Amino acid sequence: MAIVGPDYDIIHVHPKGPWFVEDIDYYVSRFRDGDKIEVLRPRSGASKAAKWAINHIDDVKKYYFNMDLDNIELSYCSKFIWQAFYYGYNLDITGMGLTDRSRATHIYPNDVRDSDHLASTETIDVEK
């Protein structure tokens, strides 16, 4: 999971990072031939979430499944997306009633992908 930043860079928290900001070509190169990347567009709040993400990505110190949603230093891909929307736009992207005071065992990628606040716009077929 990743978020597109204000300059169209791809911002994501990753186990090999703990984070990366890279162009779309490099991001796609991380996938295998035949993979599919679903592109989702927020119905609102995209620019504010993206701005928060680029301003706070370097706060992530370790890729880690930490339950405290207010902990940015220990984060993972889908949790960071949740944080970007929550802190950047005051929106719980999952619709589960989570706040920064919540402890969530995990925010899974499908919790973000299946959000009523996002619409699928296209699928990128990875060809190498």
Q: Determine Rg (CA atoms, Å).
A: 14 Å
Number of strands: 7
Please state the structural category. Answer: alpha+beta
Strand order of the largest sheet: 1-2-3
Strand fraction equals: 15-25%
Question: Tags for this entry?
Answer:
4 helices, 128 residues, three-stranded antiparallel sheet
Question: Care to describe what's here?
Answer:
This protein is α+β, with helices and mostly antiparallel strands. It is about 25% helix and about 25% strand. Strands 1-2-3 form a three-stranded antiparallel beta sheet. Strands 4-7 form a two-stranded antiparallel ribbon. The longest helix is centred in the middle third of the chain and has 13 residues, at about 75-90. It is globular and about 45 Å long. The mean pLDDT is about 95.
